[in-house]
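Why do we care about 3D structure at all? Because function follows from shape, and shape follows, mostly, from sequence. That is the central idea of this module. The next example makes it concrete: a single protein chain, its amino acid sequence, and then its structure expressed as tokens.
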Amino acid sequence: MNGLLFSPRLIASRVTLLNPAYYATLSPVVRREAVKSLLTSGTLATSILMMFKMGGADVETDPRSSDFGKIKIGNTRYDILGGFGQYITLGARLSTNETKTMKGEVQTLGERYGSRTRLDVAANFLGNKASPVAGYVRDYLRGADPVGTPFDARRDAAELFIPLFLQDAAKVYEEGGVEALPRVAPGFFGVGVSTYADKPKFDPNQEFTQEVAAEPAPVPEPEDVPTFDPNQPFDATTSANLQAVDVLSNMGLHITDDGVRSQEDQENYYNNTQGVAAPGHSPHQSGNAIDIRVPQGVKPSDIVAELTAQGFKGVTIITRRHGTGPHWHIQWQSAGE
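And the structure:
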């Protein structure tokens, strides 16, 4: 069990202390002392959180949020609940079938196409409790860590041997320099300290920038660009899509999205994920785009060169994290016959 989970006995103790049935099995004297200790800890934690909130810090009080019971100063979060907040959040999400995002939006689990369900919430909770070695394998298979940082074999392997306190200190230093290092001091005394930026809100009016992997080809004539049909089903493919799938598959790349999205499907993606183009403006709807799993040992320029050699024009690739998760988005202006 220790090979799969990080401190399974600690997990069991947290679940036991939050389980009302456990207290019913205790003798009256022990039960009274146990409840008294629990209420004392809860009152102390509540008082500290209220004090920081009155002092201007951000304190999340909604148990459906992953920031519940944490003190947020800048991008640094302090967990004074000793990890109990994670279990309270899990219980709140499973019991209400709702979750609260970092943007403050309350979403119903499983309500929309592609949105998370109770099973996803439970699986994500267990995945985050993985042991260091199991977590390394998990990130390798998923292609990114729980906060979306792309997997890097050497860096992630090295972090297995670096204490979490020092990793937190390094992140705080990157964000605020030497002056920000005192922020991690509470971690030395057992307070959970984590630093990461909130995901930016998607602004549909913001100019959509791309990482261009090659010199852009001349804009093709209008008749060379496939016509967008909003009534075309999601699982349909154009000849360009099929040709691109054949080229990329021969390169050993894993295709994750090769269909032509309908208007309804694009609306679902747009409403439930960040960084997705508005309906009617996505190359996925015109059959001019494909998504692939983040490859190992293949550069964007290699893909552009191969597609260009096969007659594709204006090939661009987006490698930064966006939309539905870690992947590379490949699009083109027109394709060869």
